[in-house]
Specification:
Blueprint: H1 2-46, H2 48-55, H3 60-82, H4 85-98, H5 102-130, H6 141-167, H7 172-199, H8 204-232, H9 234-242, H10 252-270, H11 272-291, H12 296-337, H13 341-368, H14 370-378, H15 383-412, H16 416-441, H17 443-468, H18 473-506, H19 514-539, H20 541-546, H21 551-556
Helix pairs in contact: 1-7, 1-12, 1-13, 2-7, 3-5, 3-6, 3-8, 3-11, 3-12, 4-5, 4-6, 4-10, 4-12, 5-6, 5-10, 6-8, 7-8, 10-16, 11-12, 11-16, 12-13, 12-15, 13-15, 13-18, 14-15, 14-19, 15-17, 16-17, 18-19
Subcellular location: Cell membrane
Pfam families: Polysacc_synt (PF01943)
Main location: membrane
Length: 560
């Protein structure tokens, strides 16, 4: 009896250790992916300022609308081209690594590589040929789609290689590659726009086409970074293969079947945000033409404001959720393979709490500073409308981000088909509510229907996870209430700071210039962040979510 009891105790201790290790890996991986994603997204938003100045006030709204329409179609084509293979590779590599069969993981990567190359070629050809029927009535979209087809050739291979590294819980190569990709893209984008418009005095459509072709240039540089990382660490990976069990032999056909079966749901779920964006793109203009007397130019500007301007900034916040989602998949796959129920339950709870800890204050904070933030990037044109759309979009990013994380959790525990089915319900809700909400509320209606769709899909997924695996409900409720409460406090501090700083600067100059707006944005963000950080440290929540090392900050700043 005693021996049995001791074995149970030892087993529980091992599971606790495994859970702590998984939590540490999640935090470390999320940190790398968050830094990479945030820096990439910030670069992807900052380019707007010089790009707007190069195009000029008259051309920028039309160019931005054209850019956004092309990019939405490209994003969907890219997700199909990538075919969910990187995340599937990440999951399967982690699965076989947990069995100490590193050689099989490498085989999966090689087979996936041939699939990625084939999918890239086929998708790029389809995108090129289908461009004339994807214009939504605007022929200027054709050269933009053609320029983006080149990127579809390269990105699947790059994304697949990122998935291989992620299968080893090594997020640094992906994060650094992501940043380099974005940096190269932005440099080419701005340089080409300047040369076309200012030096060659060419067409603004040509300038936009070259700006979108920059995605291909960025992908090439991002892939080269990954090649360098592998070459640098090749002896390490070869050593793991050499010291594997090497008892498992998986036939080629089975490897392909595993990749495709795992990848298909990733296509649909990974395309979730893009699918909703395409619904907006192909319904917004038709509904608004029926509901209003707005000119085509006004409709293009309205579309650019919610689908382009606001989306670029709120995606910075959503990238936080994506970082958590990317990190949690291989960890859950490993725990699922080892049948460690406690590690699974803890990983669910840790992922959700980490999401709330980061995402809720970030979204509310962006909503609070929406006015000066919008003016910093987009100037004073349509100032009030643009700021209100950005504030609403910031709140919308919470259900979008939660969907990204929960969908990743579902896939990590092989609930792929169920996740796709539940997402379909959310998409149906988006369709059903789109027309009446856009008819009544215009651009805000698209945001409302998106929130409804993602909220429904996510709620159904969380309910399914709770029923199948269980979630630490008490811990989630306690920490969630505190995070939400202190995030709201932070929101009002940042909002009051914006109004106060605007009043202060109005005594000396116009408070709505880009430079003053940038200063107001920075100061209000700092004030809000300090308040949130103080309460998180004082209550001990930061230590619970981020680990014991954070306690040093508490001691350093003498917070009791």
């Amino acid at each position: 009896m005693n021996n049995g009891f001791e074995e149970d105790v030892i087993q529980e201790e091992l599971q606790d250790t495994e859970s702590e290790r998984a939590k540490g890996q999640m935090l470390k991986g999320s940190a790398w992916m968050t830094v990479g994603s945030i820096l990439s997204r910030i670069l992807g938003a900052l380019y707007i300022i010089p790009w707007r100045l190069i195009l000029g006030a008259s051309l920028f709204p039309l160019a931005n609308s054209l850019y956004t329409q092309g990019y939405n179609i490209y994003s969907f084509a890219l997700i199909v081209a990538v075919a969910g293979i990187p995340s599937a590779i990440s999951k399967q590599v982690a699965h076989y690594n947990a069995l100490n069969e590193y050689g099989v993981g490498v085989q999966i990567y090689k087979k996936g590589l041939s699939l990625a190359i084939l999918m890239g070629i086929v998708s790029a050809l389809i995108l090129w040929v289908a461009a004339p029927i994807l214009t939504n009535g605007d022929k200027n979209v054709i050269p933009v789609i053609h320029s983006l087809a080149w990127a579809v050739l390269v990105i699947p291979t790059m994304s697949l290689t990122r998935g291989f590294f992620q299968g080893y819980n090594n997020m640094a190569p992906s994060a650094i590659s992501q940043f380099v990709e974005q940096l190269a893209r932005v440099i080419y984008m701005l340089l080409s726009a300047f040369l076309v418009l200012k030096v060659m005095h060419g067409s603004w459509v040509t300038a936009v086409s070259q700006s979108t072709f920059a995605a291909c240039i960025g992908a090439i540089f991002g892939f080269l970074v990954l090649v360098w990382f592998y070459w640098k660490n090749r002896n390490y990976y070869q050593g793991l293969i050499k010291n594997s069990n090497n008892k498992l032999s998986v036939p080629t056909n089975q490897l392909y079947c595993e990749i495709i079966s795992q990848a298909t749901p990733f296509i649909i779920l990974g395309a979730g945000v893009t699918i909703f964006s395409l619904i907006d793109q192909f319904t917004f203009f038709h509904i608004m033409r029926f509901a209003t007397n707005f000119s085509e130019e006004v409709l293009q500007i309205n579309y650019a404001i919610f689908a382009g301007n606001a989306n670029k900034l709120t995606m910075i916040v959503v990238s936080l959720a994506s970082s958590i989602g990317i990190t949690v998949v291989p960890l859950l796959s490993e725990a699922f393979t080892k049948k460690n129920k406690k590690a699974l339950k803890d990983s669910f709870s840790n992922a959700l709490v980490l999401f709330e800890f980061v995402m809720i204050p970030a979204s509310l904070g962006m909503a609070a500073i929406a006015g000066p933030l919008n003016r910093t990037f987009y100037g004073t044109a349509n100032m009030d409308f643009s700021s209100n759309v950005l504030a609403f979009s910031s709140i919308e990013s919470i259900p979008i981000g939660l969907f990204v994380v929960v969908a990743a959790i579902m896939q990590g525990v092989s609930q792929n088909k169920k996740a796709v089915k539940l997402f379909a319900y959310g998409t149906l809700a988006k369709f059903v509510t789109q027309y009446p909400l856009v008819y009544l509320f215009g651009a805000f209606g698209t945001l409302m229907s998106t929130m409804i769709g993602f909220f429904l899909a996510t709620w159904l997924m969380i309910r399914a996870l709770k029923h199948e695996f269980g979630i630490e409900k008490n811990m989630l409720q306690y920490e969630s209430i505190q995070i939400i409460f202190y995030s709201i406090v932070m929101y009002f501090v940042a909002l009051v700071s914006v109004y106060g700083l605007n009043w202060f600067f109005s005594l000396f100059t116009t408070p709505f210039s880009s430079i003053i707006s940038l200063i107001v944005t920075g100061l209000a963000s700092i004030f809000g962040a300090i308040v949130y950080a103080y309460f998180m440290l004082k209550t001990g929540l930061a230590e619970q979510v981020l680990g014991k090392r954070v306690g040093r900050l508490k001691a350093k700043f003498n917070i009791k």
